[in-house]
Amino acid sequence: MFCVECGKETTIYKNGACISCYLKNKTFSLGPLVIDIMVCTGCQSYKYKKTWIEESFDAVLLRCIRDEFTINNELQNVDITTTCDNQERIRSCKVTITGTISDQTITEEHPLTVRIKRATCEMCSRQYGGYYEATIQIRTDKRKFSKEELATMKKHVEKLIETMRTKGNRGLFITESEEIHGGLDFNLSEKGSAYSIAKKIYEHYGGEIKQSSKNVGMKDCIQLYRMTYLIRLPAYQKGDFISYKNTFYIISSLAESTVHVVNLSDGTKNAFDGKKLEDATVLGGKELIKEMIFVSQSPTEIQIMNPKTYEIVYVKKPKHFTIDEEKIKVIWIEDQVFFLPEKI
Ligand SMILES: [Zn+2]
Ligand SMILES: [Zn+2]
Which residue of 11, 15, 259, 340 is surrounded by the most CB atoms within 10 Å? Predict the structure, then answer.
């Protein structure tokens, strides 16, 4: 067949023309010269359609190009790339669209000006406005938080929030957090998430959890409530020594309302309901652990020496207890000496 345009005898691609004549003076993509993209000055997210997304500028630009450019569907295996200068407000970009048609590769370039508009997203304006739906209060029972414990607790809550945010909950944030009444308060933007966080803290540290709500007025004909989730941590924490019904224990773990302990006299494990242990006496933590020097042992007794006072103490040997080290850790409670359980 002869091409109607160049007259050569060759394969006809379309409308009586060969492929090279068909491609001549034909473009397969078309787009605007200017695109506006909105950026939040608070969190640097970009507005795409009606939502704010945390993606790179290039990724958002690509989304806009896909929406606003028209690409002829004769073009196969389409690939779009962009290069932009680094200007803050008005960026000059080049959009390169490549694809294939028949066995020919087509590359088309378009200049594009991207105007970056500054705005504040709903989330940032809420955050700046001090918006919150719930307060998490963390308190202790019959004891004070140590500075260290407060810091750990604060980090734990912040980490939980961060995880929820990275999983896609952009609307969750801390409006305010403060050390108050010897504990911690967190004002959070979402009550549902605040409840899950409070529950996780309670599951991890034990104690009790209480919730209350407060009417904070009307908005758009809806009654608004602000929630308070109070977590009261027990008087003891993991690793503490307690005395309960004339028996001494070490707390091995806490979860929700169950407290796992190890009996210091015989190494047996036990679990108590947290409510019952409210009557227990907290003796102290790791400061009660002392290092002693092993002197000798008989089948029933072990002799140890206090390295500071050289005082020798005889301790009844617990069942299945063997010593192969020179130094030995004991807990000294009210004139009684216990060996630190190997496994707690
Ligand atoms: Zn031709
Ligand atoms: Zn923002």
Answer: 259
| Per-residue pLDDT, 64 | 96
Instruction: Mention the CATH class of domain 31-121.
Output: mainly beta
CB 304 within 8 A of CB 258: no
Domain ranges of the chain: 1-28, 31-121, 130-233, 241-339
End-to-end CA distance of the chain: 90
**45 C-alpha to ligand 2 centroid (Å):** 6
Q: Position 236: which residue type?
A: Y
Report how far ligand 2's centroid is from the alpha carbon of 52 (Å): 8
Q: What is the pLDDT of residues 109-167, one digit of tens each?
A: 999 999 999 999 988 888 888 889 999 999 998 888 888 889 999 999 999 999 999 89
The two tokens of residue 75 are 């073009």
Separation of 116 CA from ligand 2 center, angstroms?
15
Top mean-pLDDT range of 23-27, 105-109, 147-151: 105-109
Q: Which ligand has its closest atom nearest to the C-alpha of 16?
A: 1
Supply the pLDDT for residue 240.
93
Tens digit of pLDDT for each residue in 206-245? 888 999 999 888 777 778 889 999 999 988 988 999 999 9
Q: Which ligand sits closest to the CA of 19?
A: 1
Residues with CB under 5 A from ligand 1 (ion): 3, 5-6, 18, 21
- How far apart (Å, rounded) are the C-alpha atoms in residues 252 and 205? 12
CA of 9 to the centre of ligand 1 (A): 8
Q: pTM above the 0.85 mark?
A: no
- For ligand 2, a single-atom ion, the residues with CB < 5 A are 40, 42-43, 121, 124
Number of continuous H segments (helices) and E segments (strands) in the chain: 5, 23
Instruction: Output the CA 99–ligand 1 centroid distance in Å.
Output: 21
Q: Who's near 310: CB < 8 A, 6+ residues apart? A: none
